[in-house]
């Protein structure tokens, strides 16, 4: 999982794109994971209730990881477990933005 | 002088004889038999945990020596215990003592779903009002997702869930209805009669359910479909990052957002 996200962030770094996480680990564990794996995106912390924290609960996230892709107006364009599909859709949206659509 | 004592003694003796007759299980022994079952389950679990620990310790050494590492059982082997529980449930068939054994079977049969399905079938036909049934409520929501060769046809699953949905317990009804109509909420076209029926049924169930997680699931599956569908605008997230600094999802407007719910656990 991590190599894919890391390289996606690198690839898109000068484009209108942001990878934003919602992390459900214990805080110390999350920070260690980020340091060890050189993770390069910002994450909301789900809180002490972790996978049952207020953000995952509000979004009805039951399977982990779940990916949601939003367009520039924060309209939902994908929601699911397929990272490849999500990446494809995200790249299509970014390309359309860059073409000035 | 004739005394009534011998007759009284005879009656008492006869009563004691019947109470000890092994062909007539008593209420007290059902409780004891359940406890014995649970104790044996605990013993088998402890044994399995130790076996896993031992295997892990030798696995490292074996791997280093280039030897193959044997596969570890993923869970304790409860097959015999489950067979025992089925036999005990049969002893109490049709009585209020059967459900606790049937519920135990549903909770315990991890590897082989067949005993679970048999126990659920019996509970559905004879025991939907028994208080023990609510403890396996959530299992009812998984039934439609099991492979057909395990759970039977769609019609058979629906019939089973319909029986549970007539329980006198509002939470058993709620779990059964979630199992019955959850898929329609996920898949049926939004403007279809099937969707409307599912929606009305689940919201009605949420109004009378008492278990918080059940109410959340009943309302949440509808919310997920209606508010988080492709084409909807995402709700705001206002939270803190891992350094405690506040930020919002709307900070990223103007960019494509890849929102990743993740964890290292």
Walk me through this protein's architecture.
Chain A is of the alpha+beta class and 101 residues long. Chain A is built from four helices and four strands; from the N terminus they run αβαβαββα. Chain A has helices at residues 2-11, 27-37, 54-58, 83-98; strands at 17-23, 42-45, 66-70, 76-80. Chain A has a two-stranded parallel sheet. In chain A, strands 3-4 form a two-stranded antiparallel sheet. Chain A is globular, with a radius of gyration of 14 Å. Chain B is mainly α and 265 residues long. The mean pLDDT of chain B is 90. Chain B has eleven helices and three strands; from the N terminus they run αααααααααααβββ. In chain B, strands 1-2 form a two-stranded antiparallel sheet. The chains are: A alpha+beta (101), B mainly alpha (265). Chains A and B meet through strand 1, helix 2, strand 2, helix 3 and strand 3 of A and helix 11 and strand 3 of B. Strand 3 (66-70) of chain A pairs antiparallel with strand 3 of chain B.
Largest sheet of chain B: 2 strands, antiparallel
How much of the sequence lies in strands of chain B comes to under 5%
Order of helices and strands of chain B: HHHHHHHHHHHEEE
Uncertain segments of chain B: none
DSSP helix fraction of chain B? 55-70%
Number of strands of chain A: 4
Structural class of chain A: alpha+beta
Count the E strands of chain B. 3
- Regarding quaternary structure, how should these chains be classified? heterodimer
Most extensive interface between two protein chains, with residue counts? A-B, 55 and 35 residues
Q: What would the average pLDDT of chain A be, to the nearest integer?
A: 95
Chain-averaged pLDDT of chain B: 90
For the record, give the distance between the C-alpha atoms at the N and C termini of chain B, rounded to a whole number. Answer: 85 Å
How many helices of chain A? The count is 4
Spans where pLDDT lies below 50 across 5 or more residues of chain A: none
């Amino acid at each position: 999982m991590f190599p894919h996200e890391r390289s996606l962030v690198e690839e898109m770094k000068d484009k209108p794109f942001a990878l934003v996480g919602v992390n459900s680990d214990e805080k110390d564990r999350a920070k260690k994971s980020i340091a060890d794996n050189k993770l390069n995106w910002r994450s909301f912390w789900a809180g002490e209730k972790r996978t049952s924290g207020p953000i995952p609960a509000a979004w009805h996230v039951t399977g982990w990881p779940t990916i949601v892709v939003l367009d520039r107006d924060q309209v939902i364009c994908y929601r699911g477990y397929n990272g490849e599909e999500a990446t494809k859709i995200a790249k299509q949206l970014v390309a359309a933005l860059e073409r000035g659509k | 002088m004739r005394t009534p004592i011998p007759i009284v003694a005879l009656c008492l003796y006869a009563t004691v004889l019947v109470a000890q007759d092994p062909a007539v299980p008593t209420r007290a022994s059902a409780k004891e038999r359940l406890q014995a079952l649970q104790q044996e389950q605990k013993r088998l679990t402890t044994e399995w945990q130790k076996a896993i620990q031992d295997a892990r310790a030798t696995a490292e050494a074996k791997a280093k020596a280039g030897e193959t590492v044997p596969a570890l059982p993923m869970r304790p082997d409860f097959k015999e215990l489950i067979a025992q529980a089925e036999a005990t449930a049969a002893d109490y068939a049709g009585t209020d003592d059967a459900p606790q054994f049937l519920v135990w079977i549903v909770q315990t049969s991890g590897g082989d779903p067949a005993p679970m399905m048999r126990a659920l079938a019996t509970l559905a036909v004879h025991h939907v009002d028994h208080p023990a049934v609510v403890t396996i409520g959530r299992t009812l929501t998984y039934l439609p997702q099991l492979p057909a060769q395990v759970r039977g046809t769609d019609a058979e699953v629906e019939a089973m869930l319909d029986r549970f949905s007539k329980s006198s317990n509002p939470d058993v009804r709620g779990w059964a209805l979630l199992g019955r109509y959850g898929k329609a909420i996920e898949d049926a076209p939004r403007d279809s009669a099937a969707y409307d029926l599912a929606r009305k049924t689940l919201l009605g169930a949420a109004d009378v359910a008492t278990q918080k997680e059940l109410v959340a699931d009943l309302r949440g599956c509808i919310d997920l479909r209606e508010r988080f569908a492709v084409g909807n605008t995402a709700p705001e997230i206002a939270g803190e990052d891992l350094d405690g600094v506040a930020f919002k999802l709307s900070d990223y407007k103007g960019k494509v957002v890849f929102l990743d719910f993740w964890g290292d656990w």
